[in-house]
User: Fold these one by one.
Assistant:
Number 1:
Amino acid sequence: MQWAATALALLLTLASVADATDTSADVPDARESDPAKLGWMRGAPPPPDRIIRFHDGSYWRFPAMRWSVSNFRRLMPTVNVSRGLGTAAPLPRAPRDDIDTLRFMPLGSATAMTWRESLDANYVDGIVVLHRGRIVYERYFGVLKEDGQHGAMSVTKSFVGTLGAMLVVSGTLDADKRVDEYVPELAASAFGDATVRQLLDMTTAIRFREDYADPDAEIWAHAKAGNPLPKPQGYAGPHGYFEFLQTVRKEGEHGRAFGYKTANTDALGWVIARATGHSVAELLSELIWSKLGAEQDAYFSVDAIGTPFAGGGLSAGLRDMARLGEMIRNGGLLNGHRIVPQAVVDDIRRGGDPGLFAKAGYALLSGWSYRNMWWVTHNEHGAFAARGVHGQTIYIDPAAEMVIARFASHPSAANTAIDPTSLPAFHALAMHLMGALEKQ
Amino acid sequence: MQWAATALALLLTLASVADATDTSADVPDARESDPAKLGWMRGAPPPPDRIIRFHDGSYWRFPAMRWSVSNFRRLMPTVNVSRGLGTAAPLPRAPRDDIDTLRFMPLGSATAMTWRESLDANYVDGIVVLHRGRIVYERYFGVLKEDGQHGAMSVTKSFVGTLGAMLVVSGTLDADKRVDEYVPELAASAFGDATVRQLLDMTTAIRFREDYADPDAEIWAHAKAGNPLPKPQGYAGPHGYFEFLQTVRKEGEHGRAFGYKTANTDALGWVIARATGHSVAELLSELIWSKLGAEQDAYFSVDAIGTPFAGGGLSAGLRDMARLGEMIRNGGLLNGHRIVPQAVVDDIRRGGDPGLFAKAGYALLSGWSYRNMWWVTHNEHGAFAARGVHGQTIYIDPAAEMVIARFASHPSAANTAIDPTSLPAFHALAMHLMGALEKQ
């Protein structure tokens, strides 16, 4: 039972387009579920009904989950992503007091909502808006503070995808090579005859169901394998992410459609580790975090043999997420220093094949594509984003010179529940910062 | 079996005057056991004989332990000790090239040893020497880097003792009050009628045997209780440090003798948490780490309900350990800012009762005392130290205006195996920096 609960909890940390959480009317709202007010893990010892544990799965039940997303390291082993020892890069401030009252129309709604209302609607834990590199808006809620780290969930994928694209540009990885040329252990798996490019764009054809209602879905096996706790007696499945990936079976032909499946990022993480001799945690520190002027170290959760969870295991500070977004917005430059090659950013911004993306059937994301593990809107502003379950995002609007970094703990994992009060808010703010609303 | 192995491994992380490790002639020397050369946890996946795990106890077997001490967070859940978000305080450098060849006589030896030789003899992972606040010497070995964190072991106790003494000076704690006035749950335990002062100086009379050869020794119960993994089926003992402390029985009369027992620090941690509403991890950040100009966050290991291991669970960067030592050497001031009250530092430096200390029978520490969880030499320089198993120390020599911070992974836990090639080396370096050797 405990094992099943933990596996369920773990799999819910994975990126998913499905929604395993009951978001019916009796779910507490943002203020009722405020994790600071609920007093999770306060007291010595905390009251029994305020203790959150990893191994019994309690950490991922709403509303306890609202504490857990800011405290993954207190629940499981992790590996550091060092910022280095230098001084943090300044993030100048130019606060605007006209944002909270900004109004927008949620998707599918006939009633306008204000920006401030959208924060509660999305159970936001923290949000920073940069305009032309300056902080125009910054808020924290619940237990997240400016010096805390919050789970980035599948925003992690975009960082791993960026590392992969950097290694392609530098020639360390050949995007056209088969995965099994880098990781022979994957030869017999679905990934063996996929190319690195197909991993980067998630156009592999793999059997990896993220349907929580199906006990045979592969997402369960992934979660059990990645669980860092000792395996229960009688467990006969794979141990760790690497063993799990070898069990993934092909379903169809690679390159025919976009299919958002976490296992692709874990496979990419393995390819990267094998090609460079460094884990994605080490590389993220070496190539990006230590050069970003980050103000905090970040960290990855790890499996029982220390493998970072490339598909969704990163936790980081909110302003550092904004710094990374700003660096990407600037074509890979930050404060005059090149961190990511311009070619990588250009490749992300051009996006993937919208035709392949359309086959995945995202009703709210019409015309979008996916490239190097970033979501590309192809809207008139050329906006693109890193996106994770429960509301995590870095949203970059080049036309508006705007970057939004957001951490949240929405009771729904799926962005289908979150996008309607988020995407139009982001676009309205972009227009507002451009002065376009005023001019209309 | 796994449970027993993990319990054994955990208890070995505790401060101890005993030695559970076989240090006979066939133990690999410092270079043979270099954890970088041995390649622990390198590769994707690492070779099976290079994988280090927490739950099977492999992490604490020598020489794997030499990797683990720099990687506790990769093995178990931890809680952050934030440095804040400010700029690190500068540590000016004035390197000296005449230290490695410095000669001293190890205790009980007729053959001189050089300072450089002493580093290998003590399996040093990193060492920094400050003289008048400037780095005159700094070396790293194995897998510890300047941006890494290493287990401080029982050096942790001195930090918790300093926090306790600060709370006494501020009036939050009354040193003369009974422990059960702060923590009623401890009333029936050995700690109930002890005073806070007796905790701070470890003059309680508690039954807490750290004899690893005895399966009934209380140290086993402590380790099992603190283990953050789910308890095995049939486990009937205490869960977590707080429950364990309630089981500790009295043995003799408080105040009659010094007895170095880890449980005292965990009890002090509970008193502090109850009196302030903050864990020792939170307080260490708030009162010291965030004011120290630390260049890295530190962290504590935690039990299954998130309690920081006050008796030995801190990991931190080496230069930050030196910063803390320098602040204490300066009477609680660093760069002109007061961090610790002068009265606390004065109280530590005056030391405890050498008569009570003598009863503990430390052959190598004649004339020493213990105060606020610091070891006080009462030598002609007024040196005092924080000390942990396997060679961890912060050694402060006020007369020589010298602070040494050292991380090590000696195969022996006990300082009895380490002091003979350490204490005379520290004193010789102090004399050297004072110019006293030259003048003799």
Number 2:
Amino acid sequence: MITGKNYVGFTPSAKGSKTYKTFNPQLNAENEDVFTEATSEEINEAVALASKAFRTYSKISGTEKALFLNTIAEEILALDTLIETYCKESGLPEGRAQGERNRTIGQLRAFAELVAEGSWVEASIDTAQPERQPVPKPDVRKLNIGLGPVVVFGASNFPLAYSTAGGDTAAALAAGCPVIVKSHPMHAGTGALVASAVVKAAKKTNMPDGVFSNLNSSGIEVGQTLVKHPAVKAVGFTGSIRAGRALYNLASEREEPIPVFAEMGSINPVVMLPKALAETGSSWAKTYANSITLGTGQFCTNPGLLFGVKGDDLTQFINVLAKEIVNIEPTCMLHPNIKSAYQKNKDRALNQDHISIVANYDKEVQINYAKQAVITVEGTTFLENTTLHQEVFGPFSMVVQCENLEQLKTIIYKLEGQLTGTILASDGELEAHLDVMNAVQNRVGRLIFNGVPTGVEVCPSMVHGGPYPASSDSRFTAVGTQSIKRWVRPFCFQDWPLKLLPLELQNENPLGILRLVNNKQTSAKI
Amino acid sequence: MITGKNYVGFTPSAKGSKTYKTFNPQLNAENEDVFTEATSEEINEAVALASKAFRTYSKISGTEKALFLNTIAEEILALDTLIETYCKESGLPEGRAQGERNRTIGQLRAFAELVAEGSWVEASIDTAQPERQPVPKPDVRKLNIGLGPVVVFGASNFPLAYSTAGGDTAAALAAGCPVIVKSHPMHAGTGALVASAVVKAAKKTNMPDGVFSNLNSSGIEVGQTLVKHPAVKAVGFTGSIRAGRALYNLASEREEPIPVFAEMGSINPVVMLPKALAETGSSWAKTYANSITLGTGQFCTNPGLLFGVKGDDLTQFINVLAKEIVNIEPTCMLHPNIKSAYQKNKDRALNQDHISIVANYDKEVQINYAKQAVITVEGTTFLENTTLHQEVFGPFSMVVQCENLEQLKTIIYKLEGQLTGTILASDGELEAHLDVMNAVQNRVGRLIFNGVPTGVEVCPSMVHGGPYPASSDSRFTAVGTQSIKRWVRPFCFQDWPLKLLPLELQNENPLGILRLVNNKQTSAKI
């Protein structure tokens, strides 16, 4: 079923000579399927098809797009070797694979519901006032339309939910934008299977050829060529700061710069207020031992930084965390490269001056399994040594022992942007420390009370994004239906013949959507 | 009343030694007031104050922000030398000055109304489901918050409505962002007066010092320093492609890239369909002679490109346009520099191969007045010579005579992004040419039917922006209340104590705003 070919639109294609295989980190061996890297010619074909498809796809109805998205979901569910392929390309357990497939399906269906309902276009109508003095007021009507072909880079740590038909793709297709996926080389087989499901769904629902392409790539060239292509109009990326920034730079240096939404690194600071530490510190330590090691610490919301004020309660927290975390069985990382990067970054942290190693799992583990570690450091050292601010992607965390809450706030204000911030507080304690809350809010996209940052609920109110470098543009979220806004622009019709307007802007409001009419929200007709 | 000093927050300041004056293009003489350019120290002070102000200003209520914005409007109306200063710094007539003041006041009040009402934050609430399997659903709530200090560059061609307290400033202040204005050197006095009104209003309404600063600048250094300052979080600009792109590049090269919304060049193509040309060509020619010369052609929506299919009707249109346009009295340009740029760009166009000069005003005019011109060119020549695609800022336009509608469409698809596109069509004619409409829509932010692009209605449904280089990010508009979205980011609270949530997210919905609650739009409480 996995042919190893690209999908250039609906057409399987393998014109190139460069091939590669994926890797099973559990077995520490290459998988069998051979993938053929996309050539420049195939890239150009895919983009040309996408541009052509955009002309029609951007105009089809929400109902038709919904059918397409729902059919993708069905076709993904119908793939019989998906879970097995996912596991052998990621080292992740079957339960996680199934959970992620559910999330992927759920996202596709949520976007289907969004576009079928139709209000997402934010229709706005100001009717004419021909008698207005000194000049007549024209009839002005606006709605959101797709930007054009979107390139999506899959995430290594979410082979399904943030890759081939994941959040970025679902949002872009919902917005009316054709998608060209730069397949993630670590899970090219999973990607190929999902791509086959998308293509099947596109054909079944009569979508134009080019609405979706899937291009294999083991290096950086395919991605670079795509981002530089003049007919590509936006980019979605999930991954490292280095790679995300490189793509952002390429896109901003184009003759026509294009938006890049890159969801990048985050160390997700957790602030433990004094009473919470005193009253529930040990219980939080157990909870955090699990959060830090969840999914081998390979979540973008992994808690990499824990802040408290120095003292017995924080020492007690550290001791419990240390004891608990080494009792957790190590698990497999996604790929030997990710494992070796973890090892390197962890070693760099462990070798910094003035840090103490609190926990460092030291029993024998299988190859490609990650040994968890926790270090602790004084607030002053942390402030001075920005190397300690860098993400260690994996089951690693650092407890920063601040002199007092004043120093804690100072440190928070100096942190880079983050996806999440968490505050642990006892009853009524937060009220007395709103300044701490303000400091954290300034640096993050999501603020969590008495919980853990891992686990990102897919719902309209979610914000997954934050000040740079958590994301390249904090004005958008990468998760939830509102992420569709990354791929649309407002478009305005002035004095346009009413019957030629899109349905969303017609007087009769045939779709029954919520609209802003003469500055009032209403579902009524005009 | 004009001191020539900067406003560093509330404090008039003139630490520098570099001074400059503005210029009266009608009298062709310098104005008297002397302005002191801001120093690096003053820039740093203004940004530090803005950062500090942001911590409180971003949290104040919509009612308080509305009072501030409305008071700015009142204080601007109370400035007794504003109109006179505007005229002597721009060469524009008094009627225009008054109209633009009304527009400025209107914008401030529209934003006041927007934030007083409160639904603009797009509040979204997903309530918890503690019993959900396999994991409980958290309580997740979202609203829009300000990005941080915003730098606003005033526009040369709108000394009031798109400068000191113009659209960008009003939108940023409404969003909860302090504003630092890089004053436009051509109308520094107008800017200083408006700045004094903003400062007065800020003090009257107890806004924090630093919520607004106004920095004088005659060169590019002040603007560059501001855009590179790490504490500046976004930039608004209106002006040339060259300057806008330079700022965009600076902002994307920062360690932390920041969004730049630059509203730049546009030549605003007008497509005349065959029947419209045949039936109403002469009448449109008269209308367009006026639109091309309105405000000495110094509007970003000036129609610089007129397309039709070659033939007698188009020839007739050109003849009438030529005759009408030379009968219009030339008017003054904003500044000798703008006049000389117009002359240079016009001459460049007039000297291209294979063009015909249709009209070229040749009577004596006052210095700094612009002589209007119209040229015509064949479609094939236009396609081949991209110099002809460049904006000639001033009372200039070009008629492109296409072989047929197929060539017309080809040309449209090759145009750079534009603010507006216009289609002139007879009854029922557009229906037969939806492909032409699609081509224009692809390249513009606003599509006008049987009208002129000049005249930008300020209303919620307006889109002033478009594919690059019309604007640097087509996902936003620069005009209308929706332009507030440029300066905000979504922010999410998870499991947050209800009483500590912003009013917009509290169960009782104390502001009575429209919210998305569990995926349904409602103004009800929870």
